[in-house]
Amino acid sequence: MASDREDFNLCGPSHLTDLDWANENHQRCVAACLVQGIYIVERDRQLQRQGSHALAHPWWDSFHFKLIRHLIDDADFSIFGAIYELKQDTKTITNVDSKAPRYVVAFRGTLTKPDSISRDLELDIHIIRNGLHRTSRFEIAMQAVRSMATSSSVGASNLWITGHSMGAAMALLAGKTLAKTGVYLKSFLFNPPFVSPPIERMVSNERVRSGIRFAGSLVTAGLAFSRTLKQAQQPQHQQQLQERNLSEDPLKALSLWLPDIHVNPGDHLCCEYIGFFEHRGNMEQLGYGAGIVERMAMQHSLGGLLMDAMGVSNAVEVQEPVHVIPSANLIVNRTASDDYKEAHGIHQWWRADQDLVSNIYLFK
Question: What's an example of a GO molecular-function annotation for this chain (predicted)?
């Protein structure tokens, strides 16, 4: 039996009757609904709902999109994403001042159903271990996003990427990968996981939270500096340093990309983004030295550094954590949530009764 939360007519954004593409709230609602469409199209597949029994298509039809390609995992053959195209006969597509996308690539998060839960949990573990970039699912996603963004017939200015939870991590990593090459995509990231203890929820006292984060930055930066010195003594690493342009700052290269990151303080998976940006600002206010410490700390995972120090990890190449992003438009839903499921859910992002607070953080 289908859940009411899958039916667009029962739980979709009924208030969105006159779509204004220049309205950021409308953009957010549409992006969230397109992600929901991926969840439902996979449920349609699992439950063999076809024809009039299928529930997915209103989630994109209602906004004049058509689904032109499924993105299918090569391990369990589940649908984890899709490419949408705005219908050419839509009036907004002919408006030169319109902010409507021509295409949207969307990714769902973990689906806790028997046909997909095993593979999805495997991907969740890869995120925790900072290894999402090595998975075949991400390779499929990255190829789809890159081919659209760099195509002469599409281009970055006509493309949005969006995702929820694990799908938000995938969209974030794809966006970061392209941003490092100077390609910047409009991005809507809903409840992306922040792989760190949720201090924002665990500690109520603001001063204590700040103290914990400050200590964490010092430890992380110290371990990172120690590993850098150790690696510099290895011949193969010395050659890599010679081939690399040391004047390039990886954070600076990303700083021009400004993704929309949507988080809820009641969601322990993503709430630390709030403290992450606030803490970075506090460190910069302390002066140049503290800013350097934070810059080094934010590019590394404390857990990964500890494992490396204990000899558990011997990987030559170390990827910065997926959640590290120097600039962002952080949208926080301050509406009280009844439970974690509601705080983490995609449905909150198209509702009209939510208390949303937006802050832009620019890397300096």
Answer: hydrolase activity
Whether 242 shows a pLDDT value over 80: the answer reads no
117 - beta bridge partners?
Answer: none
Q: Which of 104, 123, 114 is nearest to 27 (CA)?
A: 104
pLDDT in tens, 101-112: 999 999 999 999
8-42 pLDDT tens trace: 999 999 999 899 999 999 999 999 999 999 999 99
64: left (phi over 0), alpha (psi -120 to 50) or beta: left
Torsion of Cα atoms, 327 then 332 then 338 then 342, to 10°: -50
Stretch among 73-77, 169-173, 232-236 having the lowest mean pLDDT: 232-236
CA distances from 95 to 20, 90, 123, 238 (A): 12, 10, 40, 54
Instruction: Please name which of 347, 321, 323, 320 lies closest in space to residue 333, comparing C-alpha atoms.
Output: 347
Phi, psi of 12 (to 5 degrees): -75, 175
Angle at 339 between CA 333 and CA 341, to 5 degrees: 80
Of 176, 106, 192, 116, the C-alpha closest to 144 is 106
pLDDT tens-place string over residues 302-325: 555 555 555 555 444 456 788 889
